[in-house]
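Recall from the previous chapter that SMILES is a line notation for molecules. Here it describes flavin-adenine dinucleotide.
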Amino acid sequence: MTAPQTALVIGGGIAGPVAATALTMAGIETAVYEARPADPAAANGIGGSLALEPNGLAALRIIGADDAVRASAIPIVRSSMSIASRPGREMPAPQGLPPRQLIDRGVLHGILGERARLAGVPIHHGKKLIGVEEGPDGVTANFADGSSASADVLIGADGVHSVVRGLIDPGAPSARYLNLLGFEGLVDDAHGVIDLVPGSMTFAFGKRAYYLYWKRPDGRIGWGVNLPSPQYFSLREARAVPVDEWLQTLRETYAGDSPGGWLAERTPSETLQAVGGLHIMPPVPHWYRGRMVLVGDAVHAPSNSTGQGASLAVESAIQLARCLRDLPDLPSAFATYERLRRTRVETIAARGARVSHAKAPGPVAQRMMRVMIPLMLKAMNIEKTLGEEQRYTIDWDAPADGVAMSPRSV
Ligand SMILES: Cc1cc2nc3c(=O)[nH]c(=O)nc-3n(C[C@H](O)[C@H](O)[C@H](O)COP(=O)(O)OP(=O)(O)OC[C@H]3O[C@@H](n4cnc5c(N)ncnc54)[C@H](O)[C@@H]3O)c2cc1C
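With both inputs in hand, we obtain:
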């Protein structure tokens, strides 16, 4: 199997358009196939906000998408943590790094899709992958609408419930549901009831559930909810439940929390949206097989408490393109890609798994957290943990063959 000339990318979320743009820059003719319809109404409101860390922005710079993201995002310059309604305690951050950027997911998809189109990548919507056929000369993707497409390589950027992952290895693990459902709402705070400056975000461990809130430039408060729910709801199922029912549940859940109770009471139903169940991906034994390879959440979804899911997806997409550009054949390109990425993504996932346990604490665990978390924050070597995570950069111009790699890109 020689170096690829053409590629199919399955999934047009975050990793997909980034991989396609980088592959095109690398001289590989690439097209994206996305299951969602092209209808912009369907693309809007696809899932609230997400934060990109400095490392994610640095990776986006390689495809020239970082400025557009910054122009549409809220820079988060200060973060604090509040336990059991106590005043937020400022969270230490690595020194000298630019702020994380909070952006609407639909807007981010729009920016990345546009960037890919500008690079010459066709994006086909309404193309749900259902199977593949592999041959000595290429791989063919079959879609639910009866159409198909062929190329030298197929990249599974199809998210946490990836179909490609199962095609690579029918025994691959599935994503693990964290018993938490995500929601996001907006609250008017014209009288400044909540003492927050724009660009600050508070992570709050309430009596029964975790939430986070931030001040927007328009003066409103945005808040994100991690609602404990042993019952799993897909995004479609969660959105089929009348929003007032969810709002009632949120009001009961956060009733004893400040400002969680206030936020739940004042959230107008038209601003509340379900953003889906929260998952993590256990380590995936096989990242590739034959002409197929995985990228993004399909292969390494960490808990959302890391704030790194999207940033890691972007990094992996760029590194995969670099490896396919520089290595002489698919097996060596895929092996180099895995070597560059596996340790980093699994280390970050392990950090996230520890935090996720604290998101739906019982009363005893909550009392312990009040004591333990400030001590942990004090003892934590921020530079060693978050600093290393967030200073990661990729040297796009350096060959990916392991000879001339930038030290931080390993
Ligand atoms: C509530 C919530 C909050 C989050 N907050 C953050 C945050 O603040 N910061 C952060 O970094 N990350 C966050 N994440 C995680 C982040 O959203 C993911 O890590 C990121 O979206 C991964 O990008 P991806 O392209 O790999 O997958 P996705 O964004 O899921 O994109 C996958 C795409 O593939 C398409 N697809 C799926 N199956 C098929 C198929 N069979 N055929 C064709 N197309 C298909 C899907 O329609 C989708 O468009 C959050 C996640 C959730 C649920």
